[in-house]
Specification:
The complex is a heterodimer of chains A (113) and B (115).
Chain A: E1 4-7, E2 10-14, E3 19-25, E4 32-38, E5 45-51, E6 56-59, E7 62-67, E8 72-77, E9 86-93, E10 101-103, E11 107-112
Parallel strand pairs in A: 2-11
Antiparallel strand pairs in A: 1-3, 3-8, 4-5, 4-9, 6-7, 7-8, 9-10, 9-11
Chain B: E1 4-7, E2 10-13, E3 19-25, E4 31-37, E5 44-51, E6 54-57, E7 64-66, E8 76-78, E9 87-94, E10 96-97, E11 100-101, E12 105-106, E13 110-114
Parallel strand pairs in B: 2-13
Antiparallel strand pairs in B: 1-3, 3-8, 4-5, 4-9, 5-6, 7-8, 9-12, 9-13, 10-11
The chains are: A mainly beta (113), B mainly beta (115).
Chain lengths: 113, 115
């Protein structure tokens, strides 16, 4: 069935370093890839997304890359800050398949001051 | 909460009771979803609805029921058949525009505890 694998499950970095989270999807028809950030005890919030007609998208310190051939997409956070500490979820959807989204299992990011 | 409201924030249920979690959105979104999140875990889909009066089972629908009588509302009932209901429940909504889908807007969640 449809699946999104996310790695690593836990990531610890020093403040100011970069963090990279990687996801792989199984359904080659997927064409929309959002990323969500969930702080402790709070709701997930959309932080960035990318569509299959784009290879990279950047928003300040956050960037997402997509490799359709490898069915692989990644989140890059540069100059990490303690407030970046949270759980990050990747997801994959296909516009032709209605609204259903498949989520990765999440990555817990710790940014040490 | 960004146009999608869940209530209550905390809910306590006695064993054998049914309880209903409320989810209301004023975003005019077509689709609504219910997810369950256990401590330190990811999001598991319970039910989703793409249109009024229609809904589909997700991966863990057993012991839960939903209705979608209005576009704005998608309540979730946790029945006594759900043997391990203690969890954090998240409602979400999403929409399409000219065939393009957009990310989810989540509610602030309901934390359900069986006592």
């Amino acid at each position: 069935g449809e699946n999104v694998e996310q790695h690593p499950s836990t990531l610890s970095v020093q403040e100011g370093d970069s963090a990279v989270i990687k996801c792989t999807y199984s359904d080659s028809a997927s064409n929309y890839f959002p990323w969500y950030k969930q702080e402790l005890g709070k709701r997930p919030q959309l932080i960035i997304d990318i569509r299959s007609n784009v290879g990279e998208k950047k928003d300040q310190r956050i960037a997402v890359t997509l490799n359709k051939t490898a069915k692989h997409f990644s989140l890059h956070i540069t100059e990490t800050q303690p407030e970046d500490s949270a759980v990050y979820f990747c997801a994959a959807s296909k516009e032709a398949g209605g609204f259903k989204t498949i989520f990765g299992a999440g990555t817990r990011l710790f940014v040490k001051a | 909460d960004g146009g999608i409201t869940q209530s209550p924030k905390y809910l306590f249920r006695k064993e054998g009771q049914n309880v209903t979690l409320s989810c209301e959105q004023n975003l005019n979104h077509d689709a609504m979803y219910w997810y369950r999140q256990d401590p330190g875990q990811g999001l598991r889909l319970i039910y989703y609805s793409q249109i009024v009066n229609d809904f589909q089972k997700g991966d863990i629908a057993e012991g839960y029921s939903v209705s979608r009588e209005k576009k704005e509302s998608f309540p979730l009932t946790v029945t006594s058949a759900q043997k391990n209901p203690t969890a954090f429940y998240l409602c979400a909504s999403s929409t399409k525009n000219r065939g393009r889908i957009f990310g989810y807007t989540f509610g602030s969640g309901t934390r359900l505890t069986v006592v």
